[in-house]
Specification:
heterodimer, A: mainly beta, about 55% strand, globular, B: mainly beta, seven-stranded mixed sheet, four-stranded antiparallel sheet
């Protein structure tokens, strides 16, 4: 079992809709969780991180963490064509390493 | 400007020919790491370094070497490349081992081994 699993996608949403991305992790010791955005041919860019159970909002992005269910999600509200990218979920393994999911590709239709 | 640079950006080589991919950061970061990215597998850590002369294996270290003689540089060495090392490689740096929220990635090196 992979340490971090993401819904495989691809995910296609109309402009203005909410894109919902999901991620589960296997290591209960993981403390910190990260969402990266990666445009095609570019390097990953950190967009959100979350440590505590609950929601964390930053502009149009909301990260949600449920440690009991070992579940992290990212919501993108009012999706824009510029949000079209691959989104990577990552969890720290408490030994100063990050484990990444395979990524979910999002396409926002104009 | 804070940045991580990698060279070369693209490389096509043949099996067994030693190569080095350089990585340099200008932020005085202690922690640096190398990842490879393959379709369907996401980013996998190859090696990391918590400071000068301190390196450790990540998840997929086989076939790779690294060194950290200076704080700013963290080269990735493939002593005898094989086709299964064809991949997209990223170097990353952060202030220290805990500062993942300030992790900077280099632009990537696309390596093809024939």
């Amino acid at each position: 079992q992979k340490e971090v699993e993401q819904n495989s996608g691809p995910l296609s949403v109309p402009e203005g809709a909410i894109a919902s991305l999901n991620c589960t992790y296997s290591d209960r010791g993981s403390q910190s969780f990260f969402w990266y955005r990666q445009y095609s041919g570019k390097s990953p860019e950190l967009i959100m991180f979350i440590y505590s159970n609950g929601d964390k909002e930053d502009g149009r992005f909301t990260a949600q963490l449920n440690k009991a269910s070992q579940y992290v999600s990212l919501l993108i509200r009012d999706s824009q064509p510029s949000d079209s990218a691959t989104y990577l979920c990552a969890a720290d393994l408490n030994d100063y390493k990050l484990s990444f999911g395979a990524g979910t590709t999002v396409t926002v239709r104009a | 400007e804070a940045q991580v640079t990698q060279n070369p950006r693209y490389l096509i080589t043949v099996t067994g020919k030693k190569l080095t991919v350089t990585c340099s950061q200008n932020m005085n970061h202690e922690y640096m790491s190398w990842y490879r990215q393959d379709p369907g597998l996401g980013l996998r850590q190859i090696y990391y370094s918590m400071n000068v002369e301190v390196t450790d294996k990540g998840d997929v270290p086989e076939g790779y070497k690294v060194s950290r003689k200076e704080k700013r540089n963290f080269p990735l060495i493939l002593e005898s490349p094989s086709p299964n090392q064809t991949s997209l490689y990223f170097c990353a740096s952060q202030k220290n081992k805990l500062h993942y929220y300030e992790q900077y990635f280099g632009p990537g090196t696309r390596l093809t081994v024939t």
